[in-house]
Design a protein that fits this description.
The complex is a heterodimer of chains A (about 110) and B (about 120). Chain A is mainly beta and about 110 residues long. Chain A is about 0% helix and about 50% strand. Chain A is built from no helices and twelve strands. With about 120 residues, chain B is an all-beta fold. Chain B has no helices and ten strands. In chain B, strands 2, 4, 5, 8, 9 and 10 form a six-stranded mixed β-sheet that branches. A four-stranded antiparallel β-sheet of chain B has the order 1-3-7-6, with no helix packed on it. The radius of gyration of chain B is 13 Å and the shape is globular. In chain B, about 30% of the residues are buried. The chains are: A mainly beta (about 110), B mainly beta (about 120). Chains A and B meet through strand 5, strand 6, strand 10 and strand 11 of A and strand 4, strand 5 and strand 9 of B.
Chain lengths: ~110, ~120
């Protein structure tokens, strides 16, 4: 079945550091890909998405590019802030199944 | 409504008791999802409703788990004869259910503790 693999956390960075959180997927066909974020004490919310190959999703300084050839959707940000501290989930929605499959989440801590 | 709401926010129950968790989706959203998030784990899909179609129950972990969606809106997740391993945060999400409107909106969750 479909699956999502994320780099294990926790990830700890200093403010203004460069962030990469790796995400790879296994799916039949070409799924839609998502990054969700869960800030402390809050519910999950969509951060960005891409629905076809080579699409780039972006929001709040975060970017991720849908790479069909490497089945990846890595999350990047050039300069993280303390307020970016959260758990980040990579997810896909398959073309055949309407379900969403989530990765295990990566906890990011940004230190001032 | 402004967003997806869930109730109760917290539930403590004794092993063997039944519990009901409620989800009110965003008005007009035809798709509704239930997930379970155990401590330190990712989201585990449980069940998916889309309009009047038969629900996708493929994620329900056992026959103790069931869910209904009445009138295409409110949904109730029922866990019978709860076990300690059922302790988790149960999340509900809704979406427009259209192929190009796949964004899910999550509720705050119900934190279930089975003693």
């Amino acid at each position: 079945g479909d699956s999502v693999t994320q780099m294990e956390g926790p990830v700890t960075l200093s403010e203004e550091a460069f962030l990469t959180i790796n995400c790879t997927y296994t799916a039949t066909g070409y799924p839609s890909l998502f990054w969700y974020v869960q800030y402390p004490g809050e519910g999950l919310q969509l951060l960005l998405k891409a629905t076809k190959a080579d699409d780039k999703g972006s929001n709040k300084g975060f970017e991720a590019t849908y790479r069909k050839e490497t089945t990846s959707f890595h999350l990047e940000k050039g300069s993280v802030q303390v307020s970016d501290s959260a758990v980040y989930f990579c997810a896909l929605r398959g073309r055949r199944s309407q379900n969403f499959v989530f990765g295990p989440g990566t906890r990011l801590s940004v230190l001032p | 409504g402004a967003g997806v709401s869930q109730s109760p926010s917290n539930k403590v129950t004794e092993k063997g008791k039944d519990v009901e968790l409620r989800c009110d989706p965003i008005s007009g959203h035809t798709a509704l999802y239930w997930y379970r998030q155990s401590l330190g784990q990712g989201l585990e899909f449980l069940i998916y409703f889309q309009g009047n179609s038969a629900p996708d129950k493929s994620g329900l972990p056992s026959d103790r788990f069931s869910a209904e969606r009445t009138g295409g809106s409110v949904s109730t997740l029922t866990i019978q004869r709860t076990q300690q391993e059922d302790s988790a945060v149960y999340l509900c999400a809704s979406s427009l259910g259209l192929a190009d409107q796949e964004t899910q909106y999550f509720g705050p969750g119900t934190r279930l503790l089975v003693l």
